[in-house]
Amino acid sequence: MLRFMPVGDSMTIGSAGEHTWRYRLWQHLRDSYGGPFTLVGPREELYDKAAEAPVSSAYAEPDFPRAHLAGWGEGWLHMAPLIGGAVREHRADVLLVSLGLIDLGFYTNAEQTAENVRAFVAGAREARPRVRMVMLPVIPNIRAHADEAFATQVDRFNVLLAKTVADLDEPRSPLLLASPPEAYDVHADTYDGTHPNPSGEHRIAEAFAAAMWEAWGIGQAYATGTG
Known about the structure:
6-stranded parallel β-sheet, two-stranded antiparallel sheet, alpha/beta, Rossmann fold, 8 strands
């Protein structure tokens, strides 16, 4: 059984009542992969905005594997120390990583964030030497539209992320850089300029699906509008 672990921030954990891109990708793989697979990770909850804590189980679609390693307000800085234990305990085969916005917005600059990417990769590989990883660049968001300095940091980090993936890629434990979701629009694909609405969830899921299909033959081309 192929074991996928979604790793991310608020866009990945989602909040009460959302489907999440995790669900959209699971739905796509369920219909296209053709082999046994599941989602794994040490956490299952959604974020509850009223409680301001990840305590909700109110998924819009309850009948799918909820496991993940994602947290509201968490980034590469937070996940790098956790990933080794999570990969080891849950025997993850493929990490699906969407991180960086939080780091750049609150904690680290582009260069420091790239160093945390390296620490993340090292920790995952130490736990499971043949683990595969798909990394999504920081995608369009409303702050980058309004804050030129922040937009510069996002662009710089995305360049460094591409270089890091190229530097660290190896046959035993391949790394993929997913292309940013095509035509992603912060006004049409989010509900607040950052967090994905249903169309945004599909676009993020499609970015991961396309990378795995093109590089590894996992699944098929993504069918937008599924469910």
